């Protein structure tokens, strides 16, 4: 791909990544020098957590970036250190000390003290991108209020309309695809989840507008993960100064049209505006609504789409589970009139289906770890964590712990026949910051699995298991291309 870039584009790429390049070159030099003169030294202060903090600021940043840039994914950085140092280890990344918290006891200690002893770090690029009033950025009191006011449309009971709309959209799109047969699941699921969420949140269905909004949301999301240099041409500038601005304008105009009575819909935005006459504590301001609309779209699209892709891959690798799931789903469709859409009741009866969803989320670890910062010195399981250190709840390590999940690398939905130990199953986090879209994600995946297994079989066309480079959510580099085959009648 690089070969097709013009000289100017190459320069721009180098400009975009010049900070990373400088850190990389600098750390390679210093690391080579230090390791030549000292050999590998495992740094373990007396009674401290093992690990290598390396040089001030740089620490192991380069190794982390190199793992992120490889097809093994950024979790490889964590996996390797755990092999070298044991379950608990510390490292230094981008100038900050990080501890990866690998146990249920540690997870509980942090989740139960979220906002009090620990908090999400305030990252400027995050606030610039999703907005200062986003759930991801506001302080404790505002968080409680905003979350309470946002929550109702995402409760299971409120999702019945979403179930119908999503099911209809999915059936139409699968019908169209079946004629073409081959397609990339990730591309399909990204568009599908985006369109379905925009429909539910702001009732946008026009395809060209959806694609414009999607492009801008992707730009904002890229800006969140880039270095905050507000210089024209950088990813940061494009995301914040251009894409975010356009999105806020679109959302603002939408709110105006609805307030003037020119437009009205039955959706999330309307339910927020219905509170206009309520006291200030019982409604959201326009900027709170707009920042959180953007947050919901960004938090919901890539996560759900990746999970859908992994469900296809895992079920392809595990035919027994696929057959059992198909059996359950066919028994549900046989009991419904032909062409009828799914209801919440149908979803509630998908007992094996919901275990497939759970197992997919356990194994795929869409969010690998949950970052927090210690607000004061504390001790967890005898491990001292100092004020200002990053304590990352390592959900991946917990989900792959053989003491918690027998044979953890085996895809086995039936393991959820049994109750799980507290804090051992954390795909949606826990505590005051538990995923707001958890129910929506679950119903989306159940409907997807129902339509896929009850009407089709499929074949994965590319067995490559490499992960996409530079992605913070693990996804197959191939996007999981499949060929659909309509299920023969009589099945
Ligand atoms: C399979 C799909 C999904 C997964 C695995 C997932 C996972 C998570 C996790 C682990 C957290 C907590 C992070 C932390 O504690 O640091 C979270 C938070 C959040 N998620 Fe999700 N999510 C998914 C889908 C969605 C969807 C569909 C939406 C919205 C429509 C959504 C909206 C949010 C929001 C707004 C937060 C922040 C909550 C807060 O800080 O109070 N997520 N998600």
TrEMBL record:
Q: Which GO terms describe its biological process?
A: brassinosteroid biosynthetic process; brassinosteroid homeostasis; sterol metabolic process
A single Pfam family it belongs to is p450
What superkingdom does the record give?
A: Eukaryota
Report the leader peptide range. Answer: none
Q: Which UniProt keywords apply?
A: Heme, Iron, Membrane, Metal-binding, Monooxygenase, Oxidoreductase, Transmembrane, Transmembrane helix
Q: Which GO terms describe its molecular function?
A: heme binding; iron ion binding; monooxygenase activity; oxidoreductase activity, acting on paired donors, with incorporation or reduction of molecular oxygen
Which residue spans traverse the membrane? 15-34
According to its record, what are the GO cellular component terms? membrane
> Which membrane topology describes this protein?
Single-pass membrane protein
Location within or outside the cell: Membrane
Instruction: Say which family it is in.
Output: Belongs to the cytochrome P450 family.
Protein name, as recorded: Cytochrome P450
State the organism of origin. Answer: Carya illinoinensis
């Amino acid at each position: 791909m690089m070969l097709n870039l013009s000289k100017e584009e190459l320069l721009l790429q180098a400009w975009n990544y010049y900070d990373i390049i400088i850190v990389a070159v600098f750390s390679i030099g210093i690391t080579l020098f230090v390791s030549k003169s000292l050999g590998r030294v495992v740094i373990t202060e007396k009674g401290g957590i093992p690990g290598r903090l390396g040089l001030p600021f740089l620490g192991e940043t380069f190794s982390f970036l190199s793992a992120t840039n490889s097809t093994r994914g950024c979790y490889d950085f964590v996996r390797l250190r755990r092999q070298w140092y044991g379950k608990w280890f510390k490292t230094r990344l981008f100038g900050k000390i990080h501890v990866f918290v690998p146990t249920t006891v540690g997870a509980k200690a942090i989740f139960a003290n979220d906002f009090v002893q620990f908090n999400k770090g305030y990252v400027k690029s995050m606030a610039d991108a999703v907005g200062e009033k986003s759930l991801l950025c506001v302080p404790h009191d505002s968080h409680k209020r905003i979350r309470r006011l946002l929550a109702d449309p995402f409760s299971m009971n409120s999702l019945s309309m979403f179930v119908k709309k999503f099911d209809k959209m999915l059936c139409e799109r699968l019908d169209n695809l079946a004629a073409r047969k081959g397609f990339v699941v990730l591309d399909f699921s990204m568009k599908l989840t985006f369109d379905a969420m925009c429909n539910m949140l702001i009732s946008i269905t026009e395809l060209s507008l959806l694609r414009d909004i999607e492009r801008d949301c992707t730009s904002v999301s890229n800006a969140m993960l880039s270095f905050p240099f507000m210089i024209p041409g950088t990813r940061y500038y494009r995301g914040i100064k251009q894409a975010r601005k356009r999105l806020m304008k679109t959302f603002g105009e939408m709110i105006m049209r609805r307030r003037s009575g020119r437009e009205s819909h039955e959706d999330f935005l309307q339910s927020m505006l219905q509170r206009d006459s309520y006291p200030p504590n019982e409604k959201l301001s326009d900027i709170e609504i707009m920042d959180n609309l953007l947050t919901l779209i960004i938090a919901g699209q890539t996560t759900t789409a990746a999970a859908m892709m992994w469900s296809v891959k895992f079920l392809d690798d595990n035919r027994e589970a696929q057959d059992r799931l198909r059996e359950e789903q066919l028994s549900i469709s046989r009991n419904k009139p032909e062409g009828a859409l799914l209801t919440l009741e149908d979803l509630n009866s998908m007992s094996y289906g919901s275990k497939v969803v759970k197992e997919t989320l356990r194994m795929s670890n869409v969010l690998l770890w949950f970052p927090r910062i210690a607000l004061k010195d504390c001790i967890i399981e005898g491990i001292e964590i100092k004020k200002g250190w990053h304590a990352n709840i390592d959900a991946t390590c917990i989900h792959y712990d053989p003491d918690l999940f027998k044979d953890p690398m085996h895809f086995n939905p039936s393991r959820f026949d049994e109750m799980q130990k507290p804090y051992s199953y954390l795909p949606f986090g826990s505590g005051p910051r538990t995923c707001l879209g958890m129910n929506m994600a679950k119903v989306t995946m159940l409907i997807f699995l129902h339509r896929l297994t009850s009407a089709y079989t499929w074949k994965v066309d590319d067995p490559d298991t490499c992960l996409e480079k530079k992605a913070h959510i693990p996804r197959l580099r191939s996007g999981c291309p499949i060929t659909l085959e309509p299920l023969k009648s009589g099945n």
